[in-house]
Amino acid sequence: MRLTAETKTPFIYSSILYVAGLILFLEWLYPVKDLTATSNLIVFILYTAFCFFITLTQIKWWISFILKGAGLLFVLNGLYFQELFFSKAWVNHLLAEVYMNISALVTQDWYNLTPMFRSLLFLLLIWLMSYLIYYWFVAMNRIFLFVVLTFVYIAILDTFTVFNADVAIVRIFIISFIALGLASFMREMERESIRFLWMRKAAVWIFPLISVVLLSTLIGYAAPKLEPQWPDPVPFIKSTAEGAGSMNGGSGIQKVGYGEDDTRLGGSFIQDQTPVFTATTEEEQYWRIETKDVYTGKGWVNSSEPEYIKQDPQNLSLQTFDESVKTEEMSAKLSFTGNVQIPKVIYPYGVEEIRSIDSLDLLLDRHSEELVTEFNDNELVLDSYNMVFQSPSFEINSLRNTVTSDPENINEQYTQLPETLPERVGELAREITAAEGNRYDKARAIETYFGQNGFAYNTTNVPVPAEGQDYVDQFLFESKIGYCDNYSTSMVVMLRTLDIPARWVKGFTGGEKVVDGVGGNELDQYEVTNANAHSWVEVYFPGKGWVPFEPTQGFSNLTDFQIDVDVDTEEDTEAPPLEQNDIEKPEPKEEQEETAVDTASKSENFELNWWYIAAGIAVIALLALIIFIMRYRIQFALLGMRLKTNKNEKTYQDAYHFLLKQLAHNGLPKESSQTLREYANRIDNRYESSIMGKLTNSYEQILYTDTNNSVDIDNLAQLWKDLIKRIRS
Question: What is the DSSP string of 253-288?
C-alpha cells in the first residue's frame, strides 16, 4: 500500500530512533579506553555525535561530506599535528603519513602503523557507521540484529576482558527495548496506513513505552536473583589458552592487581579501581602477601615449592625483623568486598595474631612468607578478620652501624643472580654506591637513584624484553619507563651485585583514607583497590632483619624510620644525621617537583588540545545547525541567483521542485493520489491566488513539449519568488 503524506513517519520519531542507535553505538566505543592504550576517547565520542547529527539533518550529500571531512581533519590536527592547520607543511605532513602507512598496509606491516593513521581509520569507521546506523534504524527500520550484536559484544568483553559491563548492560537493555518498541510501532503505522497527523508535533506515544521499559528494568534490578548455577567456564578457557604467544615477547593487555605469576614481567597495563578490601587501623601500612627470591632475567620465581607449617592464629611465628627493633602495638581489621578473590592472607609488618578464624587452619610457607587458610583441607578465602601487630620503627644510625656478617643461608639464597645478567648492571650499582661506606647508605643511594636520572613512572607504553634481553638491563639502560615491578626488581638486582641480600615483596600499598576516626576513636578506614597492588624491596640487615625500601617513583616508604640521638653528645651527633637527612630527602622531593612540573605541563598541553578540539567541533556543529535551520532560505537565495544568470528550463525545473519541498515543509505536501494540477488548485485556493497554477502550467509545458524558449523565465522567476514569500509569511 502506498503511503500518503499523512502516514509518513514524523521527524520526531525517526530522530528518537536514530538517537537510540547513536547511544547503542557509543556502547561499542566506551570499552576501547579500558582495552587499549587509546587516549582522548572523549574526542572520538564528540566526533561520533557530530557525524550522527550531520546525518540526521539529511542535508545534501556533498555538504555532509565536507562537514564530516573537515571535522575529521580538525580532530587529527588537534591530536597529532604541530603545524598550522591546513598550511603547506601541514598538508605535506599528512600526505607523508598516509603514504607511509599505506605502504605498511600493502606489505602487511601492521605493527608499524602510526597512531595518527590508526586514529584516521577509526574516525573513518565512525563516519561510515553514522550512515549505516541511519540506514538500518531509520531507512530500513531493521534494528534487531544490531541490538543482538551489541549485547553479544558487551557480554564477551565483560566475560573475557577487564571491562566491567554491569552498568552498560542495563543501559543497553533500556535503550534497546525503547528502540525496538518504537520501530515496531512505526512499522505498524506504515502497514496499516494509520495517520500520524494527531501526533506529528510531539512524541506522545513514546512516553508509555518508556514508562513500561523503565518499570521493567527497576523490577528486574530489585528482584532477588539466584547465584550462578554453573561453574565459571572462563578460568578453564584461559588456562587452556595459557602460554599462547608467550614466547613472542608480547604481554597483551594487563589489568593492575595482585597476581601470582611473575615469571615474565613487563608490558603495559590499565588501571583498575575495583575495591579489594577496607582496612581499619591506626595508620597507613604496607599490606604484605609474599616474597620471591630467584630472579630469572625475565621475572621472579621461588627457589623451592611451598612448605606450609600450621600456625597458632594467636601466636604467629612469622617474624621479618629482630626483637631488638622498636615497635608499637596496633590493630587492624580487614573486610573484603568480594569483588576480587585473593586466596592468601594479607597482613602488615609485625603481625602477631589473626583473630576470628579459630575454626580454620592457618598455614605459613616459611620460604615465601605467605599465609593461607584452609577448612577441611580445602583452601578458603576469608571475608574479614582482625589482627594485632607490632609496627616496627627502624633507627637509621643503628642500620648504618650494622657490621655483622650475613648468615650463610641468607647470603646464599638472597644474593642469587642469573649468569646472563649483563655486567653493566653491576658496574652501575658500584658507581652509584661508590661514595657510601655502609649497607644502609648504599641501599638509600640506589633507592634515590631513580629519582634523579631521567626515569619516569608510567603504566602505558612499557616495553616487554625481547628474547635474550634482560628485564632489569632494559629498564636501566634503554626504556627508563615503568612501574613498581621495574623499579623494585632493578633495586633488588643491583643490591645483589654488591653482595647485599635483598628480596622482592608483593602486596598492596596503604590505600585511600575514606573515614577519619572510625567510631570516634583513633582508627581510620582505608579503601584498598586493585590499583594499590604493589611490589617493593626488602634489604637484610644482620641483627635487625628485613627492612623495607621504596624505589618506585611517586611512592613513599610507609615504614617508620627514626634517627637515634645520644643525649650526652647531642650537640656533636645531632648535626651529621640532619645533614645526611638533608642530603637524602630533597632528592626525591626535587624529582617529585620535576615530575609534578612535567605532569602539569603535559596536563596543560592536553587541556589546551582538549579545549581546542572541543571548541572546533562545537563551532563546526554550530555552523551545521545554522545551515540546517536556514537550509530553505539558502536554497531559495541560490536558486534566485541561478534564475537570473541561467535562464533555462533546467533551472526552472529545479526551482519548481524546491517550491514543492517548501510547501511540504510548511505543512502542505502533495498527496500521491493528486495530479500536479489538482495540487496547484489546492494551493491557489489556500493562498487565494493563481500563481501556483501558472507555475505548474509552465512546468508541464517544459516537461511535456519539445519547444525551447516557450516560457518567460523572468516572469516565472518573479511569480516563483512572490509565492514563496507568501508561503513564509
Answer: -EE-S--S--SS--S-EE----EEEEEEESS---EE
What count of other Cβ atoms lies within 10 Å of the Cβ of residue 285? 24
Q: Residue 541: CA atoms inside 13 Å, Cβ hemisphere, count?
A: 26
Cα distances (Å, whole numbers) of residue 230 to 233, 234, 238, 254? 8, 11, 17, 27
Closest among 58, 94, 54 to 74, alpha carbons compared: 94
- 311 phi/psi in degrees, rounded to 5: -115, 155
Span 11-19, average pLDDT:
84
Model confidence at 575, pLDDT cuts 50, 70, 90, reads very low
Neighbouring CB atoms inside 10 A of 157's CB total 19
Q: What are the pLDDT digits (tens) for 622-634? A: 777 777 777 778 8
Q: What is the C-alpha separation between 548 and 529, in angstroms, rounded?
A: 21
Q: What's phi and psi for 381, nearest 5 deg? A: -95, 125
The alpha-carbon radius of gyration of the chain (Å, integer) is: 36
3-state secondary structure of 506: strand
Supply 236's cell numbers. 578453564
Which band of pLDDT confidence, cut at 50, 70 and 90, is reported for residue 606? very low
260 against 10, higher pLDDT: 260
Sketch the domain layout of the chain as residue ranges: 5-222, 259-564+572-584, 631-728
Residues 255, 29: Cα–Cα separation, whole Å:
19
CB contact at 8 A, 587 and 451: yes
pTM of the model: 0.51
**Domain spanning 259-564+572-584, CATH architecture:** Roll (3.10)
Extended beta strands in 119-208, E state: none
Q: In this structure, how many other beta carbons lie within 10 angstroms of the beta carbon of residue 30?
A: 17
